[in-house]
Amino acid sequence: MIPFSPPRIDQLIIDEVTAALKSGWITTGPRTKKFEKELAAFCGVNSVLCLNSATAGLELVLRWFGVKEGDEVIVPAYTYCATANVVMHCGAKPVMVDINETDFNISLEKIRAAVTPKTKVIMPVDFGGLPCNYDAINALVNEKEIKNKFQPVTDEQDKLARILILSDAAHSLGAVYKNKPCGSLTDVTVFSFHAVKNLTTAEGGAIAFNLPAPFQNEKIYQQLVVKSLHGQNKDALAKTQKGNWKYDVVEAGYKCNMTDLQAAIGLIELTRYKNDTLKKRKEICSLYSKLLLNCNWAELPLFKTDYSESSYHLFPLRIKGINEKQRDEIIQEIFNKDVSVNVHFQPLPLLTYYKNLGYRIENYPAAYNNYSREISLPVYYDLTDEQVKTVANAVITSVDLILKK
Ligand SMILES: *Cc1c(COP(=O)(O)O)cnc(C)c1O
């Protein structure tokens, strides 16, 4: 069976995790802090905070900005549930909007139509690793008419004086937009290091801070360190300093810090990320594209535009002219050939919880159209060219079989 997305665990990773174990320091400590610095350099920002998930990062930022009951947060209908769930955690309303059919990313015009005086945050998702059009999104929230609608009620909202852009970049570490790395493209960016993501720490996530003046990103980093550790004003490492046992709790914070065992994996992953991991992922996607190019039913994914390049997280193939049922039958056929594939994503309005809240898939025709014809092919470091060919053949014969029926 060809798996969908196993992590790359080799001796280098095992040695670094072992070194962390033997160091006697396994929770947040020197390796996490080093990983944060190296991530910041990689993303072109001054501060990055590592956490135990992207979900925690998204929620901490919403909490920091004071998002609460009565507020609205604009999210794409086509994303993983985490994007909207964190809005629910804050008691606010996720306002779902449709996507562009071309690149699966949130539609600028649909964002514009969804802004109200209650809108506090927009959360674009870089689907499959291709960055959203951030210049356009950043410009939108600075338009006079949109700014005038904004109603600040916290110090942070007052200071920003407009809607916050919080990028869900769970797929797009290493992606590039107008020669700038993902992380430095908008106010705040959150990455995921979950086991299936491009760069993994088993579980993990990070926030890259890039807020405009007068915000001081290092200060916000410090505030969120405290928020991520029960509101404690000293972390475990600081408390081990001689006589430094006493700490205070300044708020009822959360508990979502990254451990040094996770950071050990991340440090190795990051050193070889750009020139090895991304290169390999790009080669795999290019080979799939080449092998499927002559299939008239294949709609190949977009990895590059005039101004951006993906991190090649997914290979979201679409089959022309099929319905959801046929897509599911094709997937079954592919699995019968011992190849694992996936679907990214079930649009949120199709999920029971959001359906029960009143969201209707009929309002998101582009999301449904893409979803109903989508099959994600395996992309991971250890996938060989031979296996890529096996996958492509399994897809081709399965599609041919179902289309002939
Ligand atoms: C994986 C993913 C997340 C959640 O990441 P975690 O690190 O598991 O919390 C959020 N958004 C999208 C789009 C994802 O794919």
Topology:
Layout: H1 11-22, H2 30-43, E1 47-51, H3 54-64, E2 72-76, H4 82-89, E3 93-97, H5 108-114, E4 119-122, H6 134-142, H7 144-149, H8 155-160, E5 164-168, E6 176-177, E7 180-181, E8 188-192, E9 205-209, H9 217-227, H10 236-239, H11 260-271, H12 273-292, E10 298-299, E11 308-309, E12 315-319, H13 324-336, H14 352-356, H15 365-372, E13 374-377, H16 385-404
Parallel strand pairs: 2-3, 2-4, 4-5, 5-8
Antiparallel strand pairs: 1-9, 6-7, 6-11, 8-9, 10-12, 12-13
This protein binds pyridoxal-5'-phosphate.
Short key terms for the protein model shown above:
41% helix; three-stranded antiparallel β-sheet; 13 strands; alpha/beta; binds pyridoxal-5'-phosphate; single chain; 405 residues; Aspartate Aminotransferase, domain 1; seven-stranded mixed β-sheet; Aspartate Aminotransferase, domain 2
The CATH superfamily of the largest domain bears the name Type I PLP-dependent aspartate aminotransferase-like (Major domain)
Here the CATH topology of the largest domain equals: Aspartate Aminotransferase, domain 2
Low-confidence stretches: none
Strand order of the largest sheet: 1-9-8-5-4-2-3
Annotated CATH architecture of the largest domain:
3-Layer(aba) Sandwich
Order of helices and strands: HHEHEHEHEHHHEEEEEHHHHEEEHHHEH
Q: Determine the strand fraction and express it as a percent band.
A: 5-15%
> Percent of residues in helical segments?
40-55%
Largest pleated sheet: 7 strands, mixed
CATH first level of the largest domain: Alpha Beta
Distance between the termini: 26 Å
The tally of strands reads 13
**Structural class label:** alpha/beta
Shape: globular
Number of helices: 16
Bound molecules: pyridoxal-5'-phosphate
Total domain modules: 2
